Input
Amino acid sequence: MPKKKIVVIGSGFAGLSAATNLAHKGYQVTLLEKNAQFGGRARVMESQGFRFDMGPSWYWMPDVFEAYFAQFGKKVSDYYHLHRLDPGYTVFFGKDDVMTVPAQMPEIEQMFEHYEPGSAKKLRSFMTQAGEKYQIGMRDLVYKPNRSVLEYASVSLLRNMLKMDVFQSMRSHVYAHFKEPRLRKLMEFPVLFLGATPQNTPALYSLMNYADLSLGTWYPMGGMGEIVKAFVALAEEKGVELIPNAEVQSIECAGAHATRVHTAQKSYDADVVVAAGDYHHIEQGVLPATHRQYSPAYWKNRTMAPSSLLFYIGLKKPLPGLTHHSLFFDEEFDRHAEQIYARPSWPDRPLFYTSLSSKTDPTVAPDGKENLVILVPLAVDLPDPEEARERCYHQVMDRFEHMVGVGIRDAVEVRHSYAHSDFRRDYHAFGGNAYGLANTLAQTAIFKPSMRHKKLANLYFTGQLTIPGPGVPPTIISGQVVTGEIVRDWPI
Ligand SMILES: Cc1cc2nc3c(=O)[nH]c(=O)nc-3n(C[C@H](O)[C@H](O)[C@H](O)COP(=O)(O)OP(=O)(O)OC[C@H]3O[C@@H](n4cnc5c(N)ncnc54)[C@H](O)[C@@H]3O)c2cc1C
Output
């Protein structure tokens, strides 16, 4: 019998994970990617001897990557070398107010004691609970397809759910444990990855503190692009046909089925279609209007995770006094958050983050030089003209140079900026979003856009706008979950 044909649209981690898993199960899989490079938001930019990871730079939850490769009898170390960062990262609260976060828990506890006597004990209890949430989350929740609320109808799961603090906010959970403002900011920081504020994020996500402080911050030598290379190599090994420069323009439907996928160059018959590009774009822009399942109003009412302004900077001199990852929390967190969510506007005093992987990895910059990436979170849907980017660059640089104590603007050899219109052009990102949909309570689990299309029996979605959510590990899992759904509905 001929194999069932599956077309996967998009080569981010979700698309690569789904395609590889499906090929491994015996389907004939073709993956179509609009860009020349695979990897989606995790693409790499090379410029004058500097290499920049364009998107993700924090390698968290190493267990998820290991579990991914283990499905195929492989290990992470078969593909790339992981290095645990120590210190994990640095937080600048002011020029002479810098917190360096060690890699190991005993040193982290000492650091907490230094900031707030008695807090090490509280941290231990916080982390025990966070660890339990992480275990329950990974075992019972993130791999659920969320077809129906009945998936949660088991007594032991419901009992465990009570431990998960779904109805308390992350802010009140953190504030109940710690008084010192800097420790509070440190403990609230990981939820920024989820694209929402600590006030709107359920305390369930303190599991992210476990990922941060206990599981640690890692770095794949060569850069995050090495993970993409590994995923592509494995996909090819499993027989996936990967086609770059192949933008899907439309999906043809007959009755309740998607039948063909069209690019400008070629059309592809499909028994099953997996949409791994931005959900909103495929659903509202690629499907025929008759087969859309959500209205424009539905999308307008979603809380999107922020967009970002990024600067990829090649410096012609070394940059002392900075670690691989640095967070600049010297301005009011809530003020910037308000300018992202409540009153979308360009921030006047933005928080920002810098990545300097050349501190760990000599291959990403020429000798004696550094590759600096600056990330400023911004509201989605803002106009991003050159003047606004430039103004923000100097706002950030003024503070950066002051706090680090080194002038660098005159040492900039390479500079590229990247914001909303680039996200739209490159990924068809809704509102120019960087990280998909915010993980608020109203957008968690069954409340996310559905993985299975409600009108077309053989169309599925995967990636950061559906379950389990944004981030590299969740999108890898998303590709695994959609595979389970397809195997169940469309057995080989
Ligand atoms: C700046 C930035 C920093 C981040 N930092 C981190 C971090 O440090 N750690 C972390 O874990 N996560 C981080 N993330 C989040 C993480 O990168 C994403 O959640 C994840 O990579 C998204 O994967 P995806 O497969 O869902 O989507 P994408 O990576 O966007 O992949 C979708 C793909 O579909 C393609 N596509 C879209 N439309 C079409 C079409 N019509 N035809 C063909 N192809 C199409 C796109 O070109 C793209 O390649 C960051 C993201 C950004 C942007």
Remarks:
- The longest helix spans residues 119-141.
- The chain has a mean pLDDT of 95.
- The two ends are 10 Å apart (CA to CA).
- Residues 306-427 form a domain with the Guanine Nucleotide Dissociation Inhibitor; domain 2 fold (CATH 3.30.519).
